[in-house]
Model the fold of this input.
Amino acid sequence: MTPEEYKKLSVKEFTQAAKIYDSGHAGIYEMCKDDYPPILAELEKEPFCDVLDCGCGTGPMIELLHEKYPEKHYTGLDLTPEMIHVAQAKNLSNTEFLVGDSENLPFEDDSFDAVICANSFHHYPNPQDFFNSTYRVLRKGGRLILRDYTSSNFVVWLMNHLEMPLANLFGHGDVKIHKPAEFHHHGRKSRIHSTDYGKAERLPRTSCCAEMIYMFSQKIPDHFYIIIRFQNRRKMSTRNILDCRIMHQLYQVFLHLFRKRNPASEVSEVFFP
Done:
């Protein structure tokens, strides 16, 4: 598919997801919310005032930040208008929610102290554009906090060649799961340099993805300094990982067929732990 086709698919997917995203019964999207507290903890390590959340959805990450730091200034950006409409209805002070493309950030240079991207990066068909645009809008000393899926080369290959096409077939706008080396590659091209590796950390057992990659970068005059921490959601074998991911896609197949045969029935989506 072309980049525009991927983006249209993502908009279609999240237009539907916006209806249930804040309900507590948002299916596979629920696991994204486990990542917000550790992102907040990382953000708190250095002073900040202006924060941009790329792929903000209905604004749950900004809500968490706003609850603790209502005096700060927040901007949420999402490609899906319906997500932004839900976010705007929350009427958070010192906060602006905008429809826009994270690969082409519609802001002036040096606008933010921190840019957050939580579980959105794998929806970007032009990831280098995101890195370049992020570098431009961050102030000197600013940070990029990026969290997304990754795993071993073998598991990433299986996910991209088996799961991604199946996900696209059933209406998900996922583009690609990136290898750790690919994050480094995009970073280097944007003058982002790796400086430190943290230790793996166990995360909640309710999550079903393989690994996450954390990227904490700091902008200095000529380039970024970046800290990358790999975090295992839990110790899982390749088979466990694939079973969880594929089970979710099979559930989507079942749900699609059931709704097609029973259009008048209401079916609530469930989250596979």
Remarks:
- Residues 194-212, 220-244, 265-273 have pLDDT under 50 and may be disordered.
